[in-house]
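Sample 1 of the test manifest.
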Amino acid sequence: KQEVTQIPAALSVPEGENLVLNCSFTDSAIYNLQWFRQDPGKGLTSLLLIQSSQREQTSGRLNASLDKSSGRSTLYIAASQPGDSATYLCAVPSGNTPLVFGKGTRLSVIA
Amino acid sequence: DAGITQSPRHKVTETGTPVTLRCHQTENHRYMYWYRQDPGHGLRLIHYSYGVKDTDKGEVSDGYSVSRSKTEDFLLTLESATSSQTSVYFCAISDRVPGGYTFGSGTRLTVV
């Protein structure tokens, strides 16, 4: 059974800092990994979908890397802003089954 | 999110009553999912559908049933609501497996 762990559970950083969020998964036989953002009381917004054949994917200030063999992914946020404050979730499908989610990292960027 | 809507957005119901939540999509995606989100547990899969009239159970399916009679609609029914089913319910869609998911805005259900 796929299990997804996100560390740290919460993170507080000053504005402008570069930061890394971590995601690990137990079953490395994955096809892709997806990072989401969730604002309080809101739904999930897809940030990046990284295929197993890719090592990284970039969108603006966000960069996600994937290392299947070690069961790890990182989400790098450059030059953080207060608007980046949210909970970040990673999720992987287990084989052909639906996405399994980590519990998220709650990020606060302090102005 | 554009293309996927959930209704109602909020609902308060009494223990023992039946409740149906609706997910509607305009993307013509084959796959639809119901998740619940609870503090300390994160998002957990309830049921999913891989086509009209084709559904399967997820991790926390007890007490829930689903129906999909049309591509665009996926209904989640709580046959007899309990307080443990107080949660935020999210619907998601995808056009292929494995593929990226798009989520709805959620339904906040309170069972009193």
